[in-house]
């Protein structure tokens, strides 16, 4: 077995265009600080890395197991709050970071297990409504426990000195890029995101992952041939929650701030759903392509519309239509077009075309 087989668990793109796009995204993310200078580009790239893990963890639940949960951002928020609260109480240290992540993972495990045991026997929409209620209750709780979570204002904290933007590894820039703690933070996110994504790829291509897909296709048949469906669905929910928690911790490490709107907002859940649909459910690679396309469009669409509006200044109606204030309208149009032309997602469509 080659190194590529081991890393990708023999789950190759199976399409040259798809492989080229994935390599381009990987190279772009790996060299963003040097190719695209500026704070905004680095923030967008970091957010893409975080969302790749978050969306892939949700795809493990939705695309591979067929479970629709609206509580996914709750676990995302738990990871972010774990790091934020621990760093606020214990100070800027690696031990605080470790304690925050471990406690967050433990809490997510307990909550995911409870939701799984009590709710996964409930069918379809009823389970989704239960998870939505739990997520809403947790968001309200986070907003009201101001002594612990900072309430609506959230928590601002510091990271260990090595990850602090003020920490300089060298006074001389390398290829025009300052070698500081912010750069180290970015590459820490890059390595962690790669490791977590490859771990999820291994899970879905394991015998356990095959059973999850069998449950997604026909739950009754899977149960009839001897698989304990509730156990597998609960395990899938727990794994998905733990990966989402780690994504939340990554967000807190990067932003050095966390609040209810930052990690627990229902808008994040909607974004995750959109990215899964755009990239392709049950593919894992769809999380990479969907996150990159969606977040780049979300971040730069206003800039492009501004240029278009200025170029069309001679046509008032077109200039008004291309106004940056209407970026959500155009984002919605792009989403509708992507669903129309790629009903199985970008990855699904490309794989269906073969090489």
Q: Indicate the mean pLDDT.
A: 87
Separate helix tally: 18
Largest sheet: 2 strands, antiparallel
- The number of distinct β-strands equals 2
**Percent strand:** under 5%
Query: CATH architecture, please?
Result: Orthogonal Bundle
Give the C-alpha Rg. 21 Å
Shape: globular
The CATH topology turns out to be ABC transporter involved in vitamin B12 uptake, BtuC
Spans with pLDDT under 50 lasting ≥5 residues? none
SS-based structural class? mainly alpha
Overall description:
It is a single chain. The protein has 355 residues and is mainly alpha-helical. It has one domain: ABC transporter involved in vitamin B12 uptake, BtuC, CATH 1.10.3470. 74% of the residues lie in helices and 1% in strands. It is built from 18 helices and 2 strands. A two-stranded antiparallel sheet has the order 1-2. α4 crosses α15 and α15 packs across α17. 39% of the residues are buried. The mean pLDDT is 87.
């Amino acid at each position: 077995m080659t190194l590529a087989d081991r890393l990708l668990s023999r789950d190759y793109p199976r399409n040259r265009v798809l492989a080229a796009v994935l390599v381009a995204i990987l190279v772009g993310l790996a060299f963003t600080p040097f190719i695209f200078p500026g704070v905004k580009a680095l923030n967008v790239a970091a957010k893409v890395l975080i969302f790749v893990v978050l969306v892939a963890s949700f795809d493990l639940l939705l695309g591979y197991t067929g479970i629709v949960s609206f509580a996914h951002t709750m676990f995302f928020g738990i990871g972010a709050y774990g790091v934020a609260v621990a760093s606020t109480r214990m100070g800027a240290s690696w031990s605080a970071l470790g304690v925050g992540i471990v406690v967050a993972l433990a809490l997510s495990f307990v909550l995911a297990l409870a939701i799984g045991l009590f709710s996964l026997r409930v069918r379809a929409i009823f389970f989704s409504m239960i998870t939505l209620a739990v997520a809403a209750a947790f968001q309200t709780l986070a907003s009201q426990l101001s002594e612990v979570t900072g309430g609506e204002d959230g928590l601002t904290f510091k990271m260990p000195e090595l990850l602090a933007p003020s920490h300089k590894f060298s006074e001389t820039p390398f290829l025009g890029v300052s070698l500081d703690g912010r750069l180290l933070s970015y590459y820490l996110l890059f390595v962690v995101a790669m490791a977590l994504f490859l771990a999820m790829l291994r899970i879905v291509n394991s015998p356990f992952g095959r059973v999850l897909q069998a449950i997604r296709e026909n739950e009754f048949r899977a149960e009839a041939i001897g698989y304990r469906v509730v156990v597998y669905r609960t395990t899938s929910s727990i794994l998905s929650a733990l990966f989402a928690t780690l994504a939340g911790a990554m967000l807190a490490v990067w932003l050095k701030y966390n609040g209810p709107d930052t990690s627990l907002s229902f808008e994040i859940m909607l974004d995750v759903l959109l990215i899964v649909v755009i990239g392709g459910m049950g593919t894992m690679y769809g999380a990479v392509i969907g996150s990159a396309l969606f977040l780049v469009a979300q971040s730069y669409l206003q800039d492009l519309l501004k240029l278009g509006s200025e170029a069309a200044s001679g046509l008032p109606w077109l200039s008004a239509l291309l106004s940056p204030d209407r970026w959500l309208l155009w984002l919605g149009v792009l989403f509708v077009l992507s669903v129309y032309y790629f009903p199985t997602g970008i990855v699904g469509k490309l794989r269906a075309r073969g090489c």
